[in-house]
Structures are given as structure tokens and as C-alpha cells.
Design brief:
Blueprint: E1 3-9, E2 15-22, E3 28-32, E4 38-44, E5 50-52, H1 60-65, E6 73-74, E7 80-82, E8 85-88, E9 91-94, E10 106-108, E11 121-127, E12 130-139, E13 150-158, E14 163-172, E15 176-177, E16 181-182, E17 200-203, E18 205-208, E19 222-223, E20 235-236, H2 246-251, E21 255-260, E22 269-275, E23 281-287, E24 291-295, E25 319-323, E26 338-339, E27 345-355
Antiparallel strand pairs: 1-2, 2-3, 3-4, 4-5, 6-16, 7-10, 8-9, 11-12, 12-13, 13-14, 14-27, 15-26, 17-20, 17-22, 18-19, 18-21, 21-24, 22-23, 23-27, 24-25
């Protein structure tokens, strides 16, 4: 059974807790019910030494104070919605414009008080697959401008094969856009241990969604072939990140949604592999989602002081946010993110670790 300890109070006086999930090999996840965030993820290197491979904070105050989204579940809508607006069934909805890349305001990651800034109801579990934590949150209609009462369940499970499995469920009483993801920043050398430019990544994606200066998709799918966004074979992240390619200049590095090649049949398939040579750690990412946002910590600047007093430097972590595509409510050619009454959103992502 997962263990529980006090993690601090938030402004409204609510208690938060930290839940530890562990398998027999020592692979361990520590998760808080504030923002349903992964606080620590400890996995072995090739020498058998454990290290924490996600960025985060030692106390809940860090998650309350900062808007870095470290480890959090993102909702209602992960990624960006252009101009903070969308129309649904003939009605227009206005959302918070809480992000302005390139001076172009948009809605980002659920708004001013997204799912990363609320206290979830938590239930520790022992399952056949391993230690688990079920987290629930009910988002009321009108919250952050979105229609419909939305009930969300996120279940984390630590498995015997050293994977952290994330299962998302959601239902609604009105049609509403939903795009749930996890925003962990990974550094397989260990959190706070330099940048991730020497990490080697493979992405099983033949296309991506190019963006404008506001990092909003242009609406088409572009091939990665003959561009520095081609990761179909293993590539060192830093090898081409400084390229003069227009998309890298607009984003300040990699911050793009990659269109995954696997079938959209609801099953989790291999989307990405990351390798860090000094530790030997390998992370495989499996998902049932159609896309993944690959982000290289371009906005980290050393001002966020996280666990163990580590200042998280520029490009000190990478994100692989499994998702539907950005701005889908305004992009009719993209797979729909509209959840309707009577439907259940089901999505699965696994981060599985091994060593080479």
C-alpha cells in the first residue's frame, strides 16, 4: 500500500499530502494531491544507484507559488488555444489569456487556475499491477470559462517493470473541449544535473504541426523529413537545436507537437525513447494519444530553485506531453477534443525505465 505524509497547507487552508508508490526493485514515484503532480521519480542507473529524474519542489509552497507546471496534470486543456477563444455549437467562449509568446496572447494549460492549481481527492490503492493512487477532481461549469461540469479521474500506478502508468478518465454533462496531459520535466542524469542537450531522443512521428510566432498551429501537418525536427532515428537533442530553421527560431528550440505514427485504436503504443549515456538510463514513452509535445525547457532560466536547492537552468529538463494537438477547438481538420455527455474520455500513458 502506498505511504502518505503531510506536504503542507495551501492558501485556503486545505491540507495536501505526498503519496509514495514503490515496486520491489526500488523504482519509486512520489505524487502530491496538489495539482496531481509527480514530485519525485526515482530510478536506477547502470551501477544500481537511484536518482530522482524529474524537476520539482521539496514543499507544496513551490507548486503554489510558481507557474512552471512541474509534474502536474494539465487541464481542462493542455497546450494553447488561440486568442483564448473557441466556438462550440454556435456559442462563443472566452478564456483567460495567460500566455503571450511572440506578443500574441493565448490560453495556456487550462488558464489562471488550471488543474495544476487545485487540490485533488486522493485514494491510495494496492492493485494487481502494483501500488497506485487514484485522484479525482470535479471542474464546475464556467470554471476558467469552459462549459459543462467535468469529472476527472487520474490513476497513477507503479508497475513491476519500472513504469509509471497514468490513466485518465473524464465525463461531462455538456459538450466541452478536454485535453489532459502530464507536464513532468525529465533529466535522466538526475534533476538539477545540468542541461539535457546530450540526451538522445527518438520520436515515432513522421509529421508535426508547424506553428506561427504565437506558437499556435498553422492548421496543417508538415513532414519532419529533411528538417531538424526529424527524430525518427536517435538524435542528440543539442545537435540541431541551434539550427536556423524557422520553426526552431520561433519556439526558441524544440516546443512542438509531433503527430505520432501509431494507430489511433485506443491502445498505448511506443511514442518516444530517451537515452542518457552517463547514467545509462533509458525512458520509453507509450501513449494512446495522437500527439506528443516535445519541449526542451527553453523558458527555464535558473530562477526556479527546486529540490535540494537546485536552480533549474536553461534547458535543464525536457517534456514529452502526450496529448491531442494544440488549438484543436479552432482547427476542424485536427482530431476532435470535444467530449460529449454520455461519452467517457479514456487515455493511457506510460513512462517506462531501464538501463543500457
Amino acid at each position: 500500500m502506498p505511504s502518505t505524509k503531510f506536504f503542507g497547507h495551501v492558501q485556503c487552508g486545505q491540507e495536501t499530502h505526498l503519496y509514495t508508490l514503490e515496486n520491489a526493485a526500488g523504482f519509486r514515484a512520489e505524487i502530491t494531491n496538489y495539482g496531481a503532480a509527480i514530485v519525485r521519480l526515482l530510478t536506477l542507473d547502470r551501477t544500481g544507484a537511484l536518482a530522482d529524474v524529474v524537476l520539482g519542489y521539496d514543499h507544496v509552497e513551490g507548486y503554489v507559488t510558481h507557474s512552471s507546471y512541474f509534474g502536474a496534470v494539465i487541464g481542462r486543456y493542455g497546450n494553447r488555444i488561440a486568442d483564448g477563444r473557441f466556438s462550440l455549437n454556435g456559442k462563443s467562449y472566452s478564456l483567460a489569456k495567460n500566455n503571450s509568446p511572440g506578443g500574441m496572447a493565448c490560453h495556456l494549460h487550462g488558464g489562471l487556475v488550471g488543474f495544476d492549481k487545485v487540490v485533488w481527492t486522493a485514494e491510495p490503492l494496492t492493485t494487481k499491477s502494483g501500488d497506485a493512487l487514484r485522484l479525482r477532481y470535479s471542474s464546475r461549469t464556467g470554471e476558467e470559462g469552459f462549459p459543462g461540469n467535468l469529472d476527472v479521474t487520474v490513476t497513477y500506478t507503479v508497475t513491476s517493470d519500472n513504469a509509471l502508468k497514468i490513466e485518465y478518465l473524464a465525463t461531462t454533462d455538456q459538450p466541452t473541449p478536454v485535453n489532459l496531459t502530464n507536464h513532468s520535466y525529465f533529466n535522466l542524469a538526475g534533476e538539477g544535473q545540468g542541461d539535457v542537450l546530450d540526451h538522445v531522443i527518438t520520436l515515432h512521428a513522421t509529421h508535426y504541426t508547424p506553428v506561427d510566432a504565437g506558437l499556435i498551429p498553422l492548421g496543417q501537418l508538415a513532414t519532419v523529413a529533411d528538417t531538424p525536427l526529424d527524430f525518427r532515428t536517435p538524435q542528440r537533442i543539442g545537435a540541431r537545436i541551434g539550427s536556423e530553421h524557422e520553426q526552431l527560431k520561433l519556439a526558441g528550440g524544440y516546443d512542438h507537437n509531433f503527430v505520432l505514427d501509431h494507430p489511433r485504436d485506443g491502445n498505448a503504443a511506443l511514442a518516444a525513447t530517451v537515452y542518457e549515456s552517463k547514467s545509462g538510463r533509458v525512458m520509453d514513452v507509450f501513449t494512446s494519444e495522437p500527439g506528443v509535445q516535445f519541449y526542451t525547457g527553453n523558458f527555464l532560466n535558473g530562477k526556479s530553485v527546486g529540490k535540494n536547492g537546485h536552480a533549474y537552468r536553461y534547458r535543464g529538463g525536457l517534456c514529452l506531453e502526450t496529448q491531442h494537438y494544440p488549438d484543436s477547438p479552432n482547427q476542424p481538420a485536427f482530431p476532435t477534443t470535444i467530449l460529449k455527455p454520455g461519452e467517457t474520455l479514456r487515455s493511457t500513458t506510460l513512462y517506462r525505465f531501464e538501463v543500457r
